[in-house]
Amino acid sequence: MNRIKILIVDDDQNICELLRLYVEKEGYEAIVVNDGVAAISAVNEHNPKLILLDIMLPKLDGWQVCREIRKTSDVPIIMITAKGETFDKILGLELGADDYIAKPFDTKEVMARIKAVLRRTYSDEENQKLVKYDKLEINLTNYELIVDGKQIDTPPKELELIFHLAKNPNRVFTRNQLLDEVWGFDYYGDSRTVDVHVKRLREKLENISDKWSLKTVWGVGYKFETK
């Protein structure tokens, strides 16, 4: 299962690095280019799921890049620019941009916009309730865990936990993140709850496949590691 690719296009190396760090921290794969021509090539080569596109670029500006991309692709585009005039926003949206953020920006706001645009654009994928790997199938529609072709009785929270980890392969989650995202913000239990559930899952999943495993990241939390 591949990570979602996000293309970052900006000629400012510091901004690129900042966005790359935040994008990768959220579990996405970042692809960075610094001019308009490279942006169009990167779209064709990497097929990103979303583009963060600066307007003031060398070789081709963001308007031209957006126009070219829209000839062949509906990939969501968030325009990022130092210009904040209404005219620029309208032009960007008329050319097919999905959202618009003016510099200086708050990185958390950019990440919130990315998630919102991805959710709108790929709602069917976001709501998909089935994850498959070698000898492993996790189905949240009917709450089934299939291991090596056999259905394994699994309590709902265990199933939701392994689904959440497997849906975000190779991303490390802290115990508190898992409590928030699997149990919910209103859960007041101990973080050792996660350890107990992982231990039970390991008993069901260990040594099933050499292509994936449920890993402990010492001092941090857990991840579903794929090879």
Your description of this structure?
The structure is a single chain. By secondary structure, the chain is an alpha/beta fold. It folds into two domains: 5-125, 3-Layer(aba) Sandwich (Rossmann fold), CATH 3.40.50; 130-226, Arc Repressor Mutant, subunit A (Orthogonal Bundle), CATH 1.10.10.10. It is built from nine helices and twelve strands. The strands form three sheets. Strands 2-1-3-4-5 form a five-stranded parallel beta sheet, with helices on both faces. Strands 6-7-8-9 form a four-stranded antiparallel beta sheet, with helices on one face. Strand 8 (144-147) and strand 9 form a beta hairpin. The longest helix has 15 residues, at 107-121. The protein is elongated. The N and C termini lie close together (10 Å).
Shape: elongated
- Number of spatially distinct domains: 2
Q: Which architecture of the largest domain does the CATH hierarchy give at level 2?
A: 3-Layer(aba) Sandwich
CATH superfamily of the largest domain: Response regulator
Mean pLDDT: 88
Could you please say which CATH topology of the largest domain applies here? Answer: Rossmann fold
Element order: H for helix, E for strand: EHEHEHEHEHHEEEEHEHHEE
Helix and strand composition category? alpha/beta
Number of DSSP helical runs: 9
Largest sheet: 5 strands, parallel
